[in-house]
Amino acid sequence: MSLESSLFSHRWLPLLLAVPLMSLIVLFFYVPVFQAFYWSFFLEQPFGGGSQFVGLQNFERVLSDPEFWMSGWRTIVFMMTASSLAVVVPLMLAVAADRKIGMSLPARNILVWPKGIAGASIGVVFAFIFNPFVGIMAPLNTMFPGLWNPGIDGTDAFITLVAAHVWSGIPFNFVILLAGLRSIPHTMYQAAAMDGAGPWRRIFDVQLPLILPQLFLTFVLEFTESITSVFALIDTITEGGPGGSTTLLVYKIYVDGFSGYDLSGASTQTVLLMIFVVLLAACQFVFLGRRINYER
Amino acid sequence: MNRFTLAAAAALMAGAGSAQATNFEFWYGNTGNVEVAIKAQCEAFNGAQSQHKVNCVGQGSYEVAMQKAIAAYRAKNHPVLIQFFDAGTLDLMLSDAVEPVQDLMPDVKWDNFIAGTRAYYETSGGKLFAQPYNSSTLLFYTNKTELEKAGVTQTPTSWEEIIEAARKLKAAGHACPFVTDGDTWRVLEQFSARHGLPIATKHNGYDGLDAEYVINTTFAAKHLANLVDWRKEGLVRLAADTKAGNYTAAFNAGECAMMEQSSGSYAAAAKAFEGKYELTVNMAPMYKSYERHNTFVGGASIYVMKGHSKDEIEAAKAFLDFLRRPEQQMFFTAATGYVPVTTDVLDAIAKSDEANSPKYATAKVGVESMNQPATPDTRGIRLGFYVQFREVFMEETQKAFAGQQTMQVALDNTKKRGDQLLRRFEQTYKGKQLP
Q: Which residues of B touch A44 (CB under 8 A)?
């Protein structure tokens, strides 16, 4: 406490300076969250004009709906595949870019560029890249007709989504991981090499343990963010189809709430999703976070 | 900007608002050449008089327009006039957010509206809730040039003939004889209506909120199962099977030879075909053993929203009057392919020099289709949360087309999930009566 008060001698000034940001957070985060909680206990008419308290009925309805569990399951599958790949792929790239190999310097720069592209734009581009008639799979399709069609086959659509997500996740995770790798003193590699450790051995025994804090950060952010950030991709690439095969929870909430005017059901699912994300982050901190040593 | 200029600007804006012309907003959802036609009508209205000024705002799609209207209404920031699509009818009727047009304008000759469009938007007492605007219905389009190349000289009129023609096309090496997107409106609603089949009990919900879906037991189930088989045979293609990725685009580009589509697509198809192919439009096909009934009106109608000043309502009424004028309807029909909504316009077209002009081709056949003998099951669809039902139907049937489940299972699931929607709607509007 003493440190803070010596920096800010004025008592109200720091609070005052924080007010604009705090009010934005309240307005755009806490108020909607409260609203969602509130509506999840009511049956709300779309145009207003009447809502009735129904207790836990919305939760009963949502939790007994197989569609909710299916989309929840898809969310978890997506999280496990897309998020893991979105960390592992940049990790490989970062390890390569960190080494003194040809093109590693320009690569460090170029690999960051996709960060500047909005999710929706990435979606439009990937929908084109994976188009069964003009995309990269088109030659395969002419050899084996019907092999690849994300518009009909749910698995193909899911793969397209994962690929787009991994690609969009590369820049940020790459920067974090590369920064971690660059901060490892060179003498460590030299010492390891002197002891006879080959390149692979050095990666697993020196580099990976030393960038655990960065890895942990990217994993936590990826896992929690993949749940919501995938929305833009789904909306532009698959719109949840075909046959609901890419309707992840975040998209289902949107469709139920905005296309179906089911404000209560969408709110209830929002509450459940929020609880899930908080629990997920908590688990990561409890089970993984403790094992990480931030001191070097 | 200092305080004085701010105050001056505010005063100026307030002044402009209260000046002679009453400004009001009209939201619509169409895009493309339909949007161009809507904008032209707005400009014509503003140019024809100086008392009122309409500000027409495009929202990108019917669904988005409705989403925004809900949000705007809750925020008390909604437009005076808004175009809503057919599927939202019951949601709006019970919303208490709109004023029935027939109450607002009792002097208009509402009987003038053709029966098919009236039935969809009127209350059980026969009162029109909204003014039908861009009305369409389902028609059958063929690429006559491609059909003739494959040796089909007579345009098919029944499903049996379509499939026969499709087999000939396929034999001639055509990759896409018949194309559809499997949309609920096209393959279920319009099919059921013209075959006289109910979609739900209680005459599709007209007789009460406690209706239940019956789509899995009617002949529509057989037709949908046929579509799956025909797709396997290579006669029917889905939008995702086509190079264009969009079935209307696939037809317009000549990739596919036949399609069922709204009359509102006529202008675009005719333009795309110009100089390349010959286009035919007819009433949507029947199974031979069934008698033809009317098709539903599709497209959208204009609602007057509550909570506006008297001046704004008067201005909105003037705009609605303007849109009903025969010359405006004729302009809109010619520009888009949507059908006229009042009988006097049909007469006016028949009497005009251009009665047989292709730009009025859909008017005659579209109205004829909607004027076929009606039954209590072909008035329209009055089911709650119907927009969401359409999504459920698409999701389940897509699984059937992909081979993950049979069409019967898909329809059984659709019925089950649809009934849950209806029960929740009933509960949401507990104590309310169908108007």
A: 428
